[in-house]
Amino acid sequence: EDQVTQSPEALRLQEGESSSLNCSYTVSGLRGLFWYRQDPGKGPEFLFTLYSAGEEKEKERLKATLTKKESFLHITAPKPEDSATYLCAVRMDTGRRALTFGSGTRLQVQP
Amino acid sequence: DTGVSQDPRHKITKRGQNVTFRCDPISEHNRLYWYRQTLGQGPEFLTYFQNEAQLEKSRLLSDRFSAERPKGSFSTLEIQRTEQGDSAMYLCASSSPQGSGELFFGEGSRLTVL
Question: How far apart are the C-alpha atoms of A33 and A100, rounded to whole Å?
Fold first, then answer.
């Protein structure tokens, strides 16, 4: 069964302390890997799509990278406003349109 | 605001009652999805529409759940004879056929079953 595993479950950083979140997947035929940000009580907000190993995308302090088995979301010099849950999702090469999500990493950035 | 709109945002009901949620997708999006999310978990897929056709249904969508998308515009998700285990956030998302596959989510409808 296709699975998406995110680690760590929770991460607490000091403002300015860079780190990385991991998303590993076991799917047959990846058609896309998606990163979302979710604030408490809100719907997920789209961040990035990655399609092939070696691909990188950047947005402000965030950079997403993709290998054949995992993706990383690198956060450089985070600020308190980066505190949120970061979700990873995949679409498989099975004709299904829906995304399969991981459980997320809850990030807290302290000033 | 041209994003995905969901109504109501919050619903408290008693066990055994029926509830209905509405989703208005982004206007040019022909694909619409329903997900369910419980505390500390990622969204779980429930069902998918392309225009008015319901093309995918999860095993999570028991016979108490029904979704419709008449005329391929807004969608409704109805839960009959609610149970306490139905308490969750119900998320709607839409996507464009011209897009890269990303889903755009609404703010969700939070259901509490007492």
Answer: 10
Locate tokens 């979700």: which residue?
Answer: A87
Q: Which of A4, A42, A97 to mutate against chain B (most B CBs within 10 Å)? A: A97
> Is the separation of the CB atoms in B6 and B107 below 8 Å?
yes
Inter-residue contact A99 to A35 (CB < 8 Å): no
Give me the average pLDDT of each 10-residue run along chain B (114 residues): 90 98 94 95 95 90 93 94 97 89 94 98
